[in-house]
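cron nightly-structures :: item 1 of 1
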Amino acid sequence: MTKGTSDKQRGLEIQEDKDDTFVCFGYRRSKAWTWLCYALCVCTVGLAALIFYWKPDWWIKVTCRTCDLKEADSVIIKDIYERYHSCQIREMEVNSESVCGQKTIKKLLHRDVIIDGVLKYLKFQKVRYIWDPREETFFKLRVLDGATSCSEFYDKLQNGLSEKEANKRRFIYGDNKIIIRVRPIIVLLIQEVLNPFYIFQIFSVSVWLADGYYYFSGCIVLMSTVSITLALYTTRKQSITLRDMVESNTTVEVLRKHGDCIKVSEDQLVPGDVIVVPPQGCVMTCDAVLLTGNCIVNESMLTGESVPVTKTPVPCTSDADGDGSSGYNADKHKRHTLYCGTHIIQTRNYEGEMVKAVVVRTGFSTAKGNLVRCILYPKPMDFSMLKDAFLFLAVLATFALIGFIYAIVTFVRFGYSTGYIVIRGLDIITIAVPPALPASLTIGMLYAQFRLKAKGIFCISPQRINTCGSLNVVCFDKTGTLTEDGLDMKGVQLAEGRTFGILQKSVTDDPIGHHIAAMATCHSLTVINGELSGDPIDLKMFQATGWDLEEPTSQESTNFDMLVPTIVRPPRKTDDLEIGILKQFPFSSELQRMSVITRTLRDETMQLYVKGSPEMITSLSKKSTIPADFQDQLNSYTEDGFRVLAMATKQLDPKLTWHKARQINRNQVENDLTFLGLLIMQNQLKPETKPVIRELQDAGIRTVMITGDNILTAINVARKCGMISAGEDIVRVEAEQGQEGNKLRLTQVVKGTGKKETSFQNHDGNGDCEEIHLQIEPTVGRRTHYAIDGKSFQAIMEHADADTKAKLAVQGTVFARMTPDQKAELVQSLQDLEYRVGMCGDGANDCGALKAAHAGVALTETEASVASPFTSKIQNISCIPNVIKEGRAALVTSFSMFKFIALCSMIQFVTVIIGYSYQSKLGDFMFMYADIFVMTTVILCMGRNDAYRAIARQKPPSKLAITTVMVSLVMQVLIQAICQVAIFFILLQQSWFVPLEQQANSTNTLCWETTSIFLVAMFQYSTVAIVYTPGKPYRKAIYSNYVYMVDLIIIHACSLVILFYPPTEIEELFKLKHISSYRFKGVIFGVVLINFVLSALVELLIIPRRKLMRLLSCKCFRKVSLRPYEELAMMPISM
């Protein structure tokens, strides 16, 4: 945590985690200013209250004065996304009568936070932050994560808490509840109605009713009612669904300090409680660290990974896993942590022992609670379209103000009453500023979401669909994503002294040796419902031995003097060859290995078997046991794209007893290993991988591989799938930190020839401060791809300068041996360069990157997983083009909808302004025809067009405030206005025309002027709908949308009837003055056709011309600003 400055204006920075960083500003209530604000709310008839409701932080700023946080009773919080929130500081009395005293609180929180018998805290986004009066800062209530060493779980907590201790902890940490409040319908209704959109609707309807537009107002009220009802239904349904997903009401068996086990409600659990996991399994209701026994857990709800995971007891010391951590950490010790919301399928316990776990986090502090918080408080999308929409609304509001002034001046000059003048002025505001504009931007996203769902792609964050339309780089995991999830055994190559033996295709006929025992035992497989289940690689390896895996029986356990979790035996069922797996050290992405401690029946000593990445296993093995040609042999396999694992063994100390083995740390035994050999597996590309990669690259979308596999294997797969084309260079970047300083080695990898050109860049000096600089001589005409492993990536991230990091992110194509944190860090680095990043993966190791990306797609059978915004039941990367196509279709639909509604408002604005010039206005049903019959049906049907079949190389614009959009709107407004003015002046020249005789305070609707202009405007709405309906290259052609075509045909048919053969009833209803001259009607139709042709020519010929748009935007005369990644991509960075 970082304590911020004490300056009241700058605030105090609270930095707990990467995502839990914010700045606090202290405020103290002023009674005088508070009463003054209440008076202001009354005087403005609630308008000020509405503004304060929309902007709660303004209420704090106006009614309070700034002060130091120690004096504050309210705070304004600025989060990392520059959003402001208001929170109240709460106080809790702590005295002799309190459940929890000052000494206990100090012991639990490791600091003294009580001043004058008061504990001060605030709750921000469901998390409690405690005020530390000594440090004068807030700190996050962290429960047991981070502050507790692993040994404390065994030394102090394994026997449980007393009832009194549990009550004291509950006083501090609260109940173990994840509460999702489903607001009552009346509350939802009030909140929905107070939305700025509906407030403006209420204002507009009030003006229209005062102006006599009863039918039109009734239709708008009806539509708004339907819209509010649907919004309430959707909001309440989502809240109920989320509540049902997280709601739980079970009892848990808890071990108390005196050895008694009692049943308690799950909400009574507190950090430090010891729970007993039932043998038949359960759903976890808290985060807990496992102390005894093993658990088989399904974590698909959290990670999307459907393969069960084996959880083992946490080691006694913090660094037992070799991760260098100082205390227990749920992420570092995830293989020992049972997460809230996960399903424990079954448990493995030892004779006479219960499966016990210590509660470490409760409520919203749990993994499940954090995921729910991410849903309740989502990360805002950095997408400028909505900002531009509100900016454009401000421009329309300026036109409305001009129209308001014009209306007042005009009607004052004609001598109308004050009330009538005010109504006319307010009416022009409701016309010029379309209230439906912001809401219309979501129509395209909703249709795209429905189409994606039909293709097996589910989205829990529809706002991200538009973002998918602007993706320009997509990162892929390798195994299970680009390649098949299952692997085929290529064979085993054993070490024979200082050389390798021949490759053995099968080991089933081999005499039983250490390599067979390693393949049979070094895995995390388990039997679930009579079938072997676990990691696909482990499954293939074990099946290659032909051995059997059996769950132990009570009789078998006596042969080992204890109950063994798993027994493996050869198919001949020779009792002497039974091997019991006594302890398992689970696979760790950071450590790149797993191991097991085993004992063969009637053997006095225990044996350790280790399996993992060849580089890691050789670093732990005796050099004398590693073949001299190890690296050459490994390279020959990985360059051909094989997945290679290494095996090693070690005979443990004969004095090591079973009880000591249970408590031993992996770093005590995973050393001085005897290298056994290599396990070679063949991983085939999925059939869809190569075509999809080619499709993305043809569209100008960069592809990147992020994998935990060997770098040469990854390079081979990158070449095979087309990420790296023939003729393009690959430069392997290796960075390491030594005693003499930092060293950067650049190696050009040449496929097939074995040629490797290497250059060194040595940087002498202190390794802690020396920076690495990436400098490569340019090569003309060829693109160069960087390939780097996780170790070098970390060194560059920690010690390289900013330019080097940026070059690596822009030119890097293959990132191998990457940990989950490094994957997420790479995605963030790409985003920092203003890339729009997509991520596709299938495993738990990809969760961080999936959430960090603008559009993360998880390949999982789960319909809706909180692991990523998108989940695909299509188990290959063909879902990525679908997401991008639909994103682009939704994006251009939103743009078109915006332009259509804005232009329709301007058409009405021009019509009304012209009418005001001769003291007339449109009739009730004229507005209904335009707004209900034309605009509403077009809005509902326009977004139904399917996405285009191919991804265009040219990306759609992601901003509204660009030259093409502005020029299009301005030219279209001019065309529509000129056509309306033209028909007005043509009307004045007709011999039969009689000007309107104005009557003071009369609507003056029934006249030839209004009728003529309305007949032109009637066609202009449908003209704009047609020219602004996007087609190729982002959506299919307009004629493919049958519903939309029928709607347009009906609209034009009705408009033609009203123009040429209007029934008397329609004329009376619309207040149209009958025009008997078919010659003039032909002129109107001619003007309409000219309008259509001009509008179409603008969109088809003028707007697509890039040179003209550059000229109009003055880009030819000023320096073009490029995004950071574009500038770097233009630099020659090759070897």
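cron nightly-structures :: done
The first strand starts at residue 12 and ends at 15.
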